[in-house]
Amino acid sequence: MEKQQGFTLIEIMVVVVIISVLIGLVAPNILGRVDEARVTAAQADISMIEQALEMYRLDNQHYPSTDQGLEALITKPSGSPEPKKWKPDGYLKKGMPVDPWGNSYQYLSPGSNGAYDLYSFGADGRDGGEGYDSDIGIF
């Protein structure tokens, strides 16, 4: 008969301890980057929506109103101001994104300091905040 080979309980425990130590050292560095990645993703979405709004304005001579909202980039809006040359396939090919925290992007036209405000409330989903909870966008 051949002798069976395998790992002892001690050997398995040593491997588990080593893996636990490595995870303990690496995880904080990776988890700390998650919030930064979400902010970067929100900024990228806002930039994409901003480009779609500019295309909308070029075609229609105005931005969508607050009432028409960002949905005007997906489906032809009703109400005033009526779009003159709305693109039949819309302005956002992949549909309206939600922010990395699962909330809708906010849009006001006219904006507080310009033609429009486009922003995310950030991690807390509320107006204002500090750090990762602060609003991200164009004001």
Concise summary:
By secondary structure, this protein is mainly α.
Structure description:
The chain has one helix at residues 9-60, and strands spanning 106-108, 117-120, 136-138. It is mainly alpha-helical and 139 residues long. Strands 1-2-3 form a 3-stranded antiparallel β-sheet, with helices on one face. The N and C termini lie far apart (79 Å).
Give a topology summary.
Layout: H1 9-60, E1 106-108, E2 117-120, E3 136-138
Antiparallel strand pairs: 1-2, 2-3
**Residue windows where pLDDT falls under 50 for at least 5 positions:** none
The profile of the biggest β sheet is:
3 strands, antiparallel
Shape: elongated
Provide the succession of SSEs. HEEE
Indicate the radius of gyration in whole angstroms: 25 Å
| Structural class by sheet pairing and helices | mainly alpha
Strand order of the largest sheet: 1-2-3
In angstroms, what separates the terminal alpha carbons?
Answer: 79 Å
Strand content: 5-15%
Quickly count the helices: 1
Mean pLDDT across the residues is 90
Range of helix content: 25-40%
Number of strands: 3
List keywords for this structure.
139 residues; mainly alpha; three-stranded antiparallel β-sheet
